[in-house]
Amino acid sequence: MNRERAETFLRMAAEAELRDPGRLRWPAPPPPPGGSALAMMPVALLRAASTLVAVGALDPEAADAIVADAELARAVRCHEPAEAGVTGPLGQAWAGPPRVSSRRFARARIKAGPGRQAGRTPAPAEPRAGPGRPGPDQYGPDRYVPVGLMVLFHDETISGELDLMSYAHTASGARLIASWQTRDPLGPRRRGLPPVEDFTVTDDQGQRYELLFATKGRPESTCDLGLRPDPPPGIRWLDITGPGEQAVRVDLDRRMDGPAPEVRATGRSAGEHLLNRIAERILTLAPEFPAQLATMAPVPLTNLTLGLGTAVAALEAAEIVPPDSPVPGRLAALCASLGVGGHGITAEPTPDLPEPWLSVLSHYHRRKPDIAPARDGFAAMAAALPELDGIRLVLLGLHNCDGSTWVNALALGQLSGPQHGPLGLDMAIPLSIWVRDDAGRWHVARPAGWFDEDGEASLTLRLTPPLIRCPAWIEVLAAGQSAEVRATVPLCWGYPG
Q1: Alpha helices, H only, 176-307
Q2: Packing angle between helix 43-54 and helix 60-77, nearest 10 degrees?
Q3: Tens of pLDDT, residues 51-69
Q4: By C-alpha distance, which of 391, 432, 382, 396 is closest to 411?
């Protein structure tokens, strides 16, 4: 990594943008009254800056200073007064979420009690220790158990079920990961949250527990059910009884052992790893345009991919992407396959695409947009993967709901908090994650929400494309910068639709 060359590249890119008179003209239509010329800052410069920051080649403060100077110079040349040190409205040019601090590239932390969440508003988090709750060194080793049971409930006003996917007990406490459905007994209309305060929970030692409902960054109709007080480490089962129904016994000695995970070194640079994740981001956005995919028409992602060529050149200048790397050519080939132009990547497109990319592209190009996803259902799963890049991923259930497929997980490690990189990538989750079903089809697993509690993040991964059947097992491929893990994980479906 050459930090000096990275900074030099960004300064020269900013100067080149300012020297191009054509870039200083107002776009059509003209800006609204009171609009700022700063909104015209070229996205290529911003993408190059965020890319260099994302791989650690440039400090956020240095990148912000270079871009701010360019913005101020641009405003002066456009005869638009600008307040010193204040950046302009870049929402249309910048592909990521809005800024949440005065420094564009500074790490932004969203506070939600003692946890940090991206994407949703969590329920209040419980303290890690206190009366009835052991401290981190008192509860015993982490415990992950597949469940795969449905708990029914009903009364005069509401009925439904809790679909228990797994049980997890860590330093943050014990909880059941579940999906849920509620309905009006007199009709199909859904009626609010499940009444978990009316459930009874008892273990094999006669201890009773409360269930605490929390979303913790998970999608709608998925939740964590915390147990209070914290159970002792040796319990063998739980009896859970919903209002108006019989008790369901959860066997906490259950195991679903698969082959041992395989770990291998990849020798991938930080820049190549980032470009691979950008490719995955493009693959997950393509389904938003089903008509174009069905007719093989260009997918309108040009505004999103603008400036990628400059970002690749920045990584090459900083010596983070080797000159002979195949990744820029693969990224160019991916854009060409989807008909996405204007990216500016100068590398020759290569047909040597990774198997997961080809599988997803093949799905898109079958011209069958009406292929039905798997029916609603949930599967028990509990698998802890080896650590990658300081994060250990634990898979705790899979479910299909309303045409989407979700994998519920924990990410154990010291996450950096929400930090948005190129194309809206959340750099706090530094892994590339793929899932292959038992029919050989690959699916991108992209973080859709997470809630961090002091090194334990409740994480939900959305599969693209969704499953079209209920597989007996999945293969998970999780890749960091220097190594990757492959694990075959058996699934036990509670009820496939």
Answers
A1: 270-285, 290-295, 302-305
A2: 170
A3: 888 888 888 888 888 888 8
A4: 391
